[in-house]
Here is the input.
Amino acid sequence: ALAVPRLENTLVEDHTREHQLLRQRLLQPAARIDSKYFYDDIGCELFTHICELDEYYPTRTEAAILSHCGAEIAAALPSGAQWIDLGCGDCSKSRKWLDKVQPSRLVGVDIAADFLQHSLARIAISHPGVECIGVVSDFTQSLELRDLLSEQPLAPPVFFYPGSSIGNFARPDALRLLRRIRQHCGEHGKLLIGVDLVKPRAILEAAYDDREGVTAAFNLNVLNVVNRELRADFQLENFKHDAVFNQRDSRIEMRLVSQTDHDVGLGAGSVRHFDQGESILTEYSHKYTSADFAAMLSEAGFTRHHYWSDEQHWFGVFLAQA
Ligand code: AVI
Here is the structure.
């Protein structure tokens, strides 16, 4: 019989609270929008397109490292593990590992329930030997897997967090997430994570401001999402995409810059005035040195790690363990 993937929903959706926070942050002197709002259907499509752009090197560089060094990485992973894909999306990245690693279980963690169920159902069909479980959760807020992992106490967890999404967290939040993963890892668990590295400014800034304007559209689309969520009335043509590398904090900062002096209704009777040149912060994308990130891993409680990179040292893949 075909196994239907089990789905656990730990997501506590409090739209009122989320909306209040979103509105509050837009009303503050330094306005900002949480990057999670990028990813509605259109935003996800634009992001897929970004990943295929010439200028956007992270996706293909990581894929090249993982395929080049795949055998070596797989040899360092325990077999029969519980493979936990953080932000699994369509599970296409995990799929490549299933035959190599032969996990007992695939735990896909993602925020979109329907999509998650479909993705896992497809894996369950192609890999009938792997138990597929979906966990609907916003793991950037909380990652609670203890009960699930303890169902298979002898199968060590392997956390798979590719794509350099760790870079989108402020450093303290990144450290908090790594600590949490470390707790779940226990003695024998591992973390396989992709991290984008520091490189010349021109390459970084081109990756976040491509010629075709896909990243600009991705950034501006967040205003459509906010309009829908809050019944706000942002006019996209009043804002311009901006992406600069902040050398001191070693991160790309994406903003939307107001092109005119104007008011924007934010719903619930709130109005925000924007001066010409005033901006909304929409994303950080931190770029680490390999030493920097290694230090962060040990601060999170991982005592050993392996490291793989490409020839140009543009991207790093770390395998960390207790
Ligand atoms: C998802 N994340 C790793 C991307 C990044 O590179 O920080 C998001 C992105 N923003 C603009 N382009 C891509």
User: Anything to note?
Assistant: The chain has a mean pLDDT of 95. Residues 5 and 132 are 5 Å apart (CA to CA). The pocket of N,N-dimethyl-L-histidine is lined by residues 50, 58, 163-165, 167-168, 208, 215, 283, 285 (CB under 6 Å). The longest helix spans residues 214-230.
